[in-house]
From TrEMBL:
InterPro entries referenced in this protein's UniProt entry, alphabetically: LysR-type_TF_proteobact-type (IPR058163), LysR_HTH_N (IPR000847), LysR_subst-bd (IPR005119), WH-like_DNA-bd_sf (IPR036388), WH_DNA-bd_sf (IPR036390)
Organism phylogeny: Bacteria, Pseudomonadati, Pseudomonadota, Alphaproteobacteria, Rhodobacterales
Domain HTH lysR-type residue range list: 1-34
Record GO biological process: DNA-templated transcription
Family to which the UniProt record says this protein belongs: Belongs to the LysR transcriptional regulatory family.
Superkingdom: Bacteria
Cross-referenced PROSITE patterns: HTH_LYSR
Protein name as it appears in the record: Gcv operon activator
Family matches, as SUPFAM superfamilies: Periplasmic binding protein-like II, Winged helix' DNA-binding domain
Species for this entry: Tritonibacter multivorans
Alphabetic keyword roster: DNA-binding, Transcription, Transcription regulation
The keyword Ribosomal protein belongs to this UniProt entry's keyword annotation: no
Signal peptide residue numbers: none
One matching Pfam family: LysR_substrate
């Protein structure tokens, strides 16, 4: 949006003043839409999305050599971003555009070439390529692990709920493993678990964990580089595997040559 946080906040206040309605509820856990805000969103979401897509098409009409990847925030940050130099070298003069969204297939922009997202096995399209199966362990910083030798089994975590870092990123299509699901898988009663510290994106959770501020769920395939560099370590050996995972699919019925090349390259890199 190319707006600073103060500028954005001021524009929101100006809009609320002009409409004489409160659109957002501001609280300690973040910002949520009020009933009036939800009503306005329902009315404007579709026309504004169509306008944005048309603007995108016009602004990029003179750029035929372009590849647009729709991907969720976590995969983009932890897997795709470190490999962008290799992708640019692979594709040569093709412009690579990365569009992030919590739900890439829902917030799809016209002209998208590849979609990479988390989903249930049954959600994937017939021609989708499975990339990473959802395998989740408990991770922390090495210093945190040394300070807490009493935390060695899933049952121990119920008494350490203040250290648990929670992800609250509501999705209409994708369910990510959470603490309740992970602990229940090992027979731990999560009644009264509550929420310790809550974040709305996974990148912040990982950064807080690296700084020794708590314990996080770590997705294999996303935190591997941090594990190899010893920025993170497994707190205990249990790994929970679900029927979900990351998959990749072509967004166009007839994909371009560069889209096919990148699709195959990503699949090979993950298979290594």
């Amino acid at each position: 949006m190319k707006l600073s946080q103060p500028s954005l906040s001021q524009r929101i206040r100006n809009l609320e003043t002009a409409l004489d309605q409160q659109l957002f509820e501001r609280g300690p856990k973040g910002v949520t839409l009020t009933r009036d805000g939800q009503a306005l969103y329902r009315k404007l979401h579709r026309p504004l999305t169509e306008l944005a897509e048309q603007f995108w098409e016009v602004s990029n009409s003179k750029r035929p050599d372009r590849l647009l990847i729709a991907v969720d925030f976590a995969f983009a940050y932890f897997w795709l971003l470190p490999r962008l130099p290799a992708i640019r070298e692979k594709l040569g003069d093709v412009d690579v555009c990365v569009l992030t969204s919590q739900e890439p297939s829902v917030d799809l922009v016209s002209g998208t070439d590849l979609i990479i997202q988390m989903g249930e096995a049954g959600q994937a399209l017939a021609d989708a390529t499975w990339l990473i199966k959802e395998k989740v362990s408990v991770v922390c910083s090495p210093a945190f692990k040394d300070l807490h030798p009493e935390l060695r089994t899933p049952g121990d975590l119920k008494d350490a709920k203040a250290y648990l870092l929670h992800l609250n990123a509501p999705s209409r299509t994708t369910h990510w493993c959470n603490w309740e699901e992970w602990l229940n898988a090992w027979g731990v009663d999560t009644a009264g678990l509550g929420k310790g510290t809550v974040f709305n994106n996974y990148e912040m959770i990982v950064q807080a964990t690296v700084r020794g501020q708590g314990i996080a769920l770590g997705w294999q395939g996303l935190v591997d580089d941090l594990m190899r560099s010893n920025a993170l370590t497994e707190l205990m050996p249990q790994v929970f595997e679900t029927e979900r995972g990351y998959y990749m699919s072509h967004a166009k019925a007839t994909p371009s040559r560069s889209a096919i090349e990148l699709h195959n390259w990503i699949a090979r890199e993950i298979a290594l």
